Amino acid sequence: MAKQRLIKSANFKNQPLWFNAINSVWKSTYPLGTKVKLDKDRLIKSARKQTGLVDLGNDFWEEPLDKLLYSVNHEAKLHPLGRFITQKRLENLLSVKLRSEYYFTKYPEILEQDLYPVTVIIGLQRTGTTKLHRMLASDPDTRALMSWEAINPAPINDKDKSGTKRIKIAETNERALKIMSPGFFAIHPVEHLAPEEDVLLLDVSFLSTTAEAIMDVPSYSEWLEKTDQSPAYEYMVKLMKLLQWQNPAKRWILKTPHHLEFLPLANQYFNDVHFVWTHRDVHRAIPSFLSMVAHSRILFSNEVYANEVARHWVRKIGYMLERAMDFRKSIHGKSNITDVLYDNLVNDSKSVLKKIYDFRNINISSELQQIFDNTEKSNPRGKYGFHKYTHEDFGINREFIDRFTLPYQKFQQKLKENYE
What we know:
Layout: H1 17-28, H2 40-51, H3 62-75, H4 80-106, H5 109-112, E1 117-121, H6 129-137, E2 142-144, H7 147-151, H8 164-180, H9 199-202, H10 210-214, H11 218-225, H12 230-246, E3 251-255, H13 263-269, E4 271-279, H14 282-298, H15 306-330, E5 337-341, H16 342-347, H17 349-359, H18 366-378, H19 398-419
Helix pairs in contact: 2-4, 3-11, 6-18, 14-15, 15-19
């Protein structure tokens, strides 16, 4: 297929004029030495200066960051603002690591805690996971990862345990995203006081699929699939303990499709884990997700091509599903997985919630059901506009998706028959 710039597709809003103007002017000054340098030692030095801390912990593993930086610098084709955003993002992740280590040392009781029981939504992207996540997170007994915490799980300083400063930072980020990418919130609303995906906690170890969702980093992605993710899950649990130390509850609700690829690790490292797997027609879910990836990548690069996004992520999704199906087979019917059909979630969320709570033998009181109902009403479909996408935006058809997902589709059909 010939390369096609996604930014020209009718279903994608162009970047604001000021955004493109800054990139154009900034790039013209590169000969003067204005190009942002994405160098590991420079990033670490900057994070240490910003925090006043030096200890990255005995478990700090440099190879993931090295692999990521190589891929970003040699493959991602970032525009000037993309390089700047990436610099700030990586500096923040290193700062989070520094601050977390400070709190683990100063308050050893943090890591002595037991991790709360964990319910984790693992459905593919665009299968109703955000809707379900927000409803379950509204339970007062449940601990969700808020967007402002996902960016900064560790307090900025000893006076910031309540998160006031971190909330302001996240609010600024939310406003900036709305300005830079007008169409993104119709796909995935990133509200600073709302629950967010816990894959961002794995980012602190530089071992997550976030990078390949926002940039074209093929060598890093290939390395990641072949690399043991245990260090990332082990450190994620530490961060979850840091978060529950700041704001206690009774149980966790998490959500990210990333875990589909690593269910044995999630099952090993999370406590008393319950997986909730949402299912939707892949011919609707996958093009929708490809659209989200495209919108994300345009924030970082002017060279975002439909066929490259589709070629990478349709295969990747098929691989994730294959790994998840292998896990289901390995547990031999001793299932801690609850399956949820997208249509049931949309049309009868009450029965879906009951099914999930029945797993832990928890009764949904009338008061709690009212909270769920209010949350559902406050997050209606189309709250930020409607998301438009087609297979044709990415130069693919149903047969291309079938090539990578047919075994999963057959499993879905059996699930649907059992429901009926």
